């Protein structure tokens, strides 16, 4: 399987690599981004590990194409900060608009070029949603009325069966967030979009594994890998 490395904004202080894996068989395109917020390190590590898994054939595409941007905001990641301004409020809100930051513009232009059917945005958040319905830790988020709702419910059900500590189980949140990469990809590109939020209070290795598990299940649901 061919995996090629490219760079967003090469030659600038925002330069960051991304990877494109191409199966020998035609099929849908999925896109995974992480590190829009530089302090959400579990999701970044999960995306980086997924790239390594592609390189060793531990993760192999059955059909289609997979685009991974492991660390979108490397400057914020180096400082372990969310980022100023919040990059996830700078994406275009409707067709014809331009993004408000060079990184969000470059990322969205890349998404526009590959036209993913599925777009997963990996994040981390405070709290555990099983214990507090107002927090986002351990949730999958998509826009109300999204075509990804049924798949998200299915993935949550499958993941939760594997979780022994029920306080760590995932929940679904339906929430449109204008300016975010997820809502931009849904509104403008028509992609099925989901934000994956693991809970910061969990051990780092546990968060990384949850992220990888959720992504792999979505890739199976999208038809890129064998379920």
From TrEMBL:
Limits of the Succinylglutamate desuccinylase/Aspartoacylase catalytic domain: 26-205
* Essential cofactor(s): Zn(2+)
Hydrolase in keyword set: yes
The molecular function terms of the Gene Ontology recorded here are:
hydrolase activity, acting on ester bonds; metal ion binding
Q: Which domain of life is it from?
A: Bacteria
Extent of the signal sequence: none
The protein depicted here goes by the name Deacylase
Alphabetical list of InterPro entries matching this protein = AstE_AspA_cat, N-alpha-Ac-DABA_deacetylase
Q: What are the entry keywords? A: Hydrolase, Metal-binding, Zinc
Pfam (any one) = AstE_AspA_cat
């Amino acid at each position: 399987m061919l995996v090629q490395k490219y760079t967003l904004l090469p030659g600038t202080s925002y330069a960051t690599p991304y990877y494109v894996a191409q199966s020998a068989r035609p099929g849908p395109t999925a896109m995974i981004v992480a590190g829009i917020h530089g302090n959400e390190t579990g999701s970044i590590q999960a995306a980086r590990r997924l790239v390594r898994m592609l390189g060793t054939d531990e993760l192999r595409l059955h059909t289609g194409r997979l685009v991974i941007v492991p660390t979108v905001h490397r400057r914020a990641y180096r400082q372990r900060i969310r980022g100023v301004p919040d990059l996830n409020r700078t994406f275009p809100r409707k067709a014809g608009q331009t993004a408000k930051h060079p990184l969000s513009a470059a990322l969205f232009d890349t998404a526009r070029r590959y036209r993913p059917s599925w777009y997963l945005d990996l994040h981390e958040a405070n709290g555990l949603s099983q214990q507090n319905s107002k927090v986002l830790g351990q949730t999958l988020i998509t826009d109300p009325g999204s075509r990804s709702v049924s798949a998200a419910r299915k993935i949550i059900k499958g993941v939760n069966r594997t979780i022994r500590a029920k306080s760590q189980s995932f929940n679904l949140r339906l929430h449109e967030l204008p300016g975010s990469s997820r809502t931009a990809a849904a509104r403008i590109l028509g992609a099925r979009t989901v934000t994956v939020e693991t809970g910061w209070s969990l051990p780092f290795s546990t968060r990384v594994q949850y992220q990888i598990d959720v992504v792999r299940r979505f890739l199976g649901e999208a038809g890129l890998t064998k379920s």
